Structure formats: structure tokens, C-alpha cells
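re: that chain from earlier
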Amino acid sequence: MKEKVHDKENYTNISYSGQRISNTEFDSCTFSNCDFSNSVLSENDFINCRFESCNFALTKLSGSGLKDVHFVDCKLIGINFDHCSDFLFAANFQKCTLDYASFFMKKMKRAKFTDCSLKEVDFTGVDLSEAVFKNCDLLRAVFHESNLLKTDFRTAVNYSFDPEANKIKKAKFSLSGVPGLLGKYSIEIE
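^ sequence. v structure.
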């Protein structure tokens, strides 16, 4: 049981930058234009929460639960989502900057990334089966031993990974994205 519980509350234009928030449950809360940069959010639960235009740059989420959380137009640079609790982990991202983030070994089945920058994100060992990367930039993102079964990359750009080092059965790709799957062969496609 968390020490503090906040239910259906709205937080707007609040700076939590550099602060520590722990052992708190946020259920069905909305955070708008809040700054969490360089903060420590440890052992919290965010359940059915929405974050809009928030800054999470270099925030630490150690042991925090993200359970059906939606991030819209947020800056999430360098976040280690792999430090979040695995229990019921579910997050979706729209118009977010997630560059240099890590989802190492997370289960993210059916996750949705829409209009996001995912440059150099680590998806090593992640279950992204049936996930959708709609209009996302995956420049130098790492996919290794990832479950990409039925994952939709059709409108994503700049992805490059080894199909033999990932599960890709029934994944969807555009013809323009095929060179990113053949990079290890050093072949030229015209």
C-alpha cells in the first residue's frame, strides 16, 4: 500500500525538477506542462494517467509502475524505463521525444508509438509483439533478441536491425524500409 493516494486529480504547470517523489499512487490523474527533469520518482504507481507536454529529461523512475499510462508531446530523453516495475507495465507515446531511452527487457505487447523520435533507443530483449511505430524515427535504435512478431514498421523511418537476431514473423514493413533489414549484408539496393 502506498503512503499517499491521489485519485482523478489534475496537475498543471508544476515544477518537480530535481525533487524526489516516492511511495505515492496516482490513479486516473492528468499532468499538463509539468517539469519532472532530473527528478527521482521511486516506488510510485501511475495508473491510467496521462502526461501532456511534460519534461522528463533525465528523470529516474526506479521501481515506479506505469500502468496504462499515456504520454503526449512529452520530452523523455535518456529515461531508463527498464528500471520501472514490470508488473502491469503499459505505456503509449504520441508526439514524444524518447531519444537515448532504454526499454531493455520490458514487455510492451501492443504498445503504440505515434509521431515519436526514438533515436538510439535500446529495445534489446523487449517484447514489442503487435506494437505500432507510426511515423517514428528509429535512427540507430537497437533491436536485438527482441520480439517483433506482428509489429508494424510500415511508416517508421531509419530503422536498421538484423532479422536473424530478432523474432519478426508477420511484422509489417514498407518497401522503402527493407534496406534497414539488409544492412549486415553490405549489398546495394537501387
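The domain at 98-190 is CATH 2.160.20.80 (Pectate Lyase C-like).
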